[in-house]
Design goal:
Structural class: mainly alpha
Number of helices: 5
Distance between the termini: 16 Å
Largest sheet: 3 strands, mixed
CATH class: Alpha Beta
Low-confidence stretches: 1-7
Mean pLDDT: 90
Radius of gyration: 15 Å
Oligomer: single chain
Order of helices and strands: HEHEEHHH
CATH topology: L-fuculose-1-phosphate Aldolase
Shape: globular
CATH architecture: 3-Layer(aba) Sandwich
Length: 137
């Protein structure tokens, strides 16, 4: 069995386990917005935990769950899926780049410009379609 056919490591979970923030180190990260850590180690299986998680998310798009993954919130399944894909790609590349040195983090002005170019429905749909086509193969 090749590594590609195995369940992928959830890179963002590794960051939440270590308490290391995922930074905007690639262009796709610009659409994620600020990524906070929900600093409770628990499954979100009770109303009060869900409410605290919703408060932690606020108006943002992504919140990390300590040692447990992340929550992404978009206007629909395509947006939410793309946020999850971009979070994983960002975390993986940040980790790999950190093996060589400190990754360069995008500046706020760069993030704003990139977000305006990337957060478009037709581009989000392309990401969805690409991954859907990979599933069909």
């Amino acid at each position: 069995m090749s590594a590609r056919s195995c369940t992928p490591i959830r890179w963002s979970t590794l960051f939440s386990m270590a308490g290391v923030p995922v930074q905007p180190v690639i262009m796709q990260a610009a659409v994620l917005g600020p990524i906070r850590l929900f600093d409770e180690t628990a499954s979100i299986n009770r109303r009060e935990l869900g409410q605290r998680l919703a408060t932690a998310l606020g108006e943002d798009r992504v919140v990390m769950l300590k040692s447990h993954g992340a929550v992404a919130a978009g206007a629909g399944i395509v947006e939410t899926f793309v946020l999850a894909v971009y979070l994983e790609e960002t975390a993986q590349r940040q980790h790999l780049a950190s093996q060589l040195g400190a990754p360069t983090v995008l500046e706020p002005a760069q993030i704003a410009a990139i977000r305006a170019n990337l957060w478009k429905q037709h581009l989000l749909r392309k990401v969805w379609d690409y991954h859907h086509a990979k599933l069909e193969r």
